[in-house]
Design a protein that fits this description.
420 residues, alpha+beta, 8-stranded mixed sheet, 12 strands, 33% helix
């Protein structure tokens, strides 16, 4: 007997409402259960983000993070986490979780989320769906709204009207700006033209803020890239048969669903063969968020939590699954401690060291913690170049104004550093 279309539609709507309610709750519960020492003072705010796994009807938090900061370009290092915005930390922690599951599969022959292919690479099990959550709109293009948002009842669902294969809608007049600077504006010399870019949609943007400059892309851009090119990123791409993506993105606070949809989907001029539910959870939401705390002072620290930590993967032998970070490293670390003792588990050095436990035969990888910065960068690139991901990412990002500006600035900076 065929199932009627109204029944299917009702079931899909019910499932989206479950996502809208349960996914933010999963992340908030993890945060609330951690000690008060992991949370900012009452006069400071932060953002919350996380990845939640759905399997066999159950929702389980995989990674949870808070954070609002990003290191200046001059301070970036393979020992440090340069981008500590909550959304990016949550994704990086999710990648750590995937590495742990690969390691577990190698030790026990099984994984709750991954299946081993005949080629030796992995895929996400068909029974597993991944959901992304952020307590407020991600910085960059998603913050540019067509009109001020009128607050509505908390937990009211608003979903993207798009299905796969939909065409982008026409640009509308904007009256909301973003503090994230457009990379394309670097081409413009006139101040008036540069000012206009604050409200221009579709552009690649760097992180907002008044501190020293950074080339780190906004969270809107990074999440968009992950959805289209693979959330596993270039570091894990050699280990996966097909890209990993999210089934839904839930955004907390009062924000236009059209703006988030544009930032993640419709500004990309490519066909897609995958679905994404974009859901908006209205209301104050996160207890320590900017609107709840009513302060303009962001917290300098970040929180990192991951579902599990497999013994044997940490270079320090620490199997904790929660950390506090500041300035891209562990909070409270001794000033003169060696980098390997203060690095967070998701910095480039720590992640490549974890991969060395999975692929010990890859040339030079066992010495990843002992290499110079230049030597490590070379090894890091060689590892990632095993897959098509770097070329795929470059082709994808080149459709946006400003990508060539970022690449040329990055190359010039690397040349300057190498000459020192």
């Amino acid at each position: 007997m065929a199932v009627s279309k109204p029944f299917k539609d009702n079931a899909k709507k019910h499932h989206k409402n479950r996502i809208l309610e349960i996914v933010p709750e999963c992340c908030s519960n993890v945060y609330n259960q951690l000690p008060s020492s992991f949370k900012p003072p009452k006069d400071q705010w932060t953002n919350l983000a996380g990845v939640v796994m759905e399997t066999n009807g159950a929702f389980l938090p995989v990674s949870v993070a808070t954070g609002t900061k990003c290191l200046p370009e001059a301070q970036k290092s393979s020992w440090l986490v340069s981008d500590s915005h909550a959304e990016i930390l949550a994704i990086k922690l999710f990648r750590r979780y995937l590495l742990e599951e690969i390691h577990l599969q190698g030790q026990t022959g099984s994984s709750e989320v991954l299946a081993l292919n005949s080629s030796g690479t992995f895929t996400l099990r068909d029974s597993v769906k991944l959901h992304f959550y952020t307590s407020c709109v991600m910085c960059g293009d998603a913050t540019i709204s067509p009109t001020p948002v009128i607050p509505s009842t908390p937990k009211t669902e608003r979903e993207s009207p798009l299905s796969k294969g939909s065409n982008p809608s026409k640009r509308r007049k904007l009256d909301t700006r973003t503090g994230a600077k457009s990379l394309a504006s670097d081409i413009l010399e006139a101040d008036t033209l540069q000012a206009r870019s604050w409200g221009e949609t579709g552009s690649l943007r760097t992180k907002p803020g008044r501190g020293p400059p950074t080339l780190s892309l906004s969270c809107s851009d990074k999440l968009m890239k992950g959805l289209w090119c693979g959330v596993e990123g270039g570091l894990l791409a050699p280990l996966f048969h097909v890209p990993v993506t999210f089934a839904s993105v839930t955004v907390g606070g009062d924000v236009h669903v059209e703006s988030v949809t544009r930032a993640l989907i419709t500004r990309v001029k490519l066909d897609r063969d995958w679905d994404l539910d974009i859901l908006i959870s209205h209301g104050d939401g996160f207890t320590y968020g900017k609107k709840s705390v009513l302060t303009d002072t962001p917290s300098n620290t970040s929180l990192l939590w991951v579902r599990s930590s497999t013994p044997g993967l940490s270079p320090t032998g620490n199997v904790s699954n929660s950390w506090r970070g500041v300035n891209g490293k562990k909070l409270g670390a001794a000033k003169l401690a060696p980098p390997s003792k203060v690095m967070l588990p998701i910095c480039q050095r720590a992640m490549l060291h974890m991969i060395s436990k999975i692929s010990p035969d890859f040339e030079g990888i066992s010495d990843s913690l002992a290499l110079s910065e230049a030597g490590f960068k070379s090894l890091y690139k060689t590892w990632k170049d095993q897959s098509e991901y770097p070329k795929k990412k470059s082709r994808f990002m080149s459709q946006f104004k400003g990508w060539d500006v970022k690449q040329s600035k990055k190359a010039a900076l690397l040349k300057t550093n190498d000459s020192k």
